[in-house]
Amino acid sequence: MKKFLELISDEMKKGFAQAGYEEELGRVTVSNRPDLCEYQCNGAMAGAKKYHKAPIMIANDVAACLADSEVFAEVNAVAPGFLNLKLKNSFVKAYVAKMSQSDKFGLEAPEKVKNIVIDYGGPNVAKPLHVGHLRSAVIGESIKRICRYNGHNVIGDVHLGDWGLQMGLIITELKLRKPELPYFDEAFDGEYPTEAPFTVSELEEIYPTASGKSKEDPAYKEAALEATLKLQSGNRGYRALWKHIINVSVADLKKNYANLNVEFDLWKGESDADPIIPGMVEDLKASGLAHESEGALVVDVKEETDTKEIPPCIILKSDGAALYATTDLATIKDRMENLNADSLIYLTDKRQEMHFLQVFRVARKAGLVKPETEMKHIGFGTMNGKDGKPFKTREGGVMRLEYLIRDINDEMYRKIVESRQDMPEEEARETAKVIGLSAIKYGDLSNQASKDYIFDIDRFTSFEGDTGPYILYTIVRIKSILNRYQELGGNLDALSFMDPANASEKDLLLQLAGFNAMMENACAEAAPHKVCAYIYDLANAFNKFYHETKIISEENKEQQAGWIAVLLLTKNVLEACIDVLGFEAPERM
Q1: pLDDT tens-digit profile of 171-213?
Q2: Cα(507)–Cα(519) distance, integer angstroms
Q3: pTM value?
Q4: 332-to-137, 327, 337 alpha-carbon distances in Å
């Protein structure tokens, strides 16, 4: 189904062609003066020089040719040469009616279906998720859903931090605490226990303890480095222990990500890239791309067009150790060979911009990706407290993500209890979780990813303004009207649209008609904030229409059914949008 604005532009192009002008001048945009018109075309201004004619003369010629248009109710030429446009109600109604009958409301399938791999999450094993993990998870999950909705094949990978010194630290501390475990007995040749010798709570205490000791005790750190080397060299006991660490951590991570309604298709980590590194390094050397610099192995990535200094990408340190760049390059190689990726999208803190610039350039130079492969780094800003500084606990530490979710849910529960004394406690608790998730996700996603934002619990949990609860309240209000309509004998399967009866209804239909273009654009730009902006405008348009229109008490049943058709489509579009944002609406609030 063609996008609404494209159809309007097509009609305007016919007018320009019929008047004897280049049809490409007929591009239409949404009016920047909605008090004067709904849409506008500035093509006459652009054509004045080419045709040596006053813009107003061109505009008048075009307006005359569109006097009998089936699309435009009004085409007014306004000095010095603007074309102010108002659409026919019948045209708007026909488009929206067709949307309601079409799969995905008429969103067209992409010309080329892409295999997209999204790298988001990035937690370290053996450590609890904290608020710093929120943005990558929430933004990445939404981009994944938006791209899937648009018809692409999308694979989400958590990309765990599961290889390196942190593993050696945990193993070293465990050896001190439980030296009797068979994993530390070099002579042990039996089967290792299937159950981990620690709980997730113990694991979360062990890592910071070990990390603190290594900073103060050089001998302890040396032991941890030695343990890391033994693990990476394939020590049987350490590998078995490492698998326990992974399994216990991943089970806990899955539970916490589930509370955010975030799912990953792959639970791979840095360890999966490790076997690929030696061969890749040899290839980089053999091709002449990698060379020694101050003992380290590097690849030069600076280009002539660079306006700032771009340092070489370090592949191996002087002691032969791999770095994040090495692991990321090996992971790219794996994703190209095994997932046939057309597009690679990475979600991290925007401070890692230089890292990904270097990695992407090495990947291109080394031929790890095809020339047409897209590689995109979406660097996000910081989630700050009301003081404008990175969000912390009252004690000044980094807050655990589960505590943040708990605080939001408690606040939502308090508000529900205040407003709905008739709701049973269990339902109120479940409803609070649903609304709480919308508060967290919408509060984050409504901001452009690259920008910092202030996490304000009071504002995010409000039922008024540009918030998740406001969007959900709108959906629940529509559900309530639809339920009432059915209770009174109405049939939701026997509805037909009518020409809009008033200005607020027409505005609502125009908002609905913009869905396809918005969803396509949100996918192309990997921009969930565009979905948020759209549904906020749509919710506002609906609520204005609702307050001005007595739907249930309308005596004209045909008119009433027409309005119910509009409500049903509005609800369905809003629900499709919140689904790609990663949350849902309750039945009542």
Answers
A1: 999 999 999 999 999 999 999 999 999 999 999 999 999 999 9
A2: 19
A3: 0.95
A4: 20, 9, 9
- The pLDDT of residue 387 is 87
Which tens digit of pLDDT belongs to each residue from 445-496? 999 999 999 999 999 999 999 999 999 999 999 999 999 999 999 999 999 9
Tell me: the pLDDT tens digits for 17-38?
999 999 999 999 999 999 999 9
Spatial strand order in the sheet of 374-380: 153-157, 115-119, 343-349, 374-380
The residue type found at 454 is I
- 376 CB neighbour count, 10 Å cutoff: 16
Rounded to whole angstroms, the Cα distance separating 280 from 284 reads: 6
Please give the torsion angle defined by the CA atoms of residues 386, 389, 393 and 397, in that order, rounded to the nearest 10 degrees.
Answer: 180
* Burial state string for 160-174 with b = 16 or more CB within 10 A and e = fewer than 16: bbbbbbbbbbbbbbb
Query: Phi and psi of 467, rounded to 5°?
Result: -135, 160
Q: Element (H or E) spanning 556, and its range?
A: none
Give the strand order in the sheet containing 313-316: 290-293, 296-299, 313-316
- Identify any residues that bridge with 118 across adjacent strands, giving them in sequence order: 156, 345
155 DSSP β-pair partners: 117
pLDDT at 44: 97
Q: Regarding beta strands 82-87 and 115-119, do their DSSP bridges make them parallel or antiparallel, or are they unpaired?
A: unpaired
Answer CATH for 4-87 from 3.30.310.50, 3.30.1360.70, 3.10.290.10, 3.40.50.720? 3.30.1360.70
Q: Name the CA radius of gyration of the chain, rounded.
A: 29
Cα dist from 324 to 180, 199, 337, 358, 476, whole Å: 35, 29, 20, 11, 46
Residue spans of the domains in the chain: they are 4-87, 116-158+269-384, 165-259
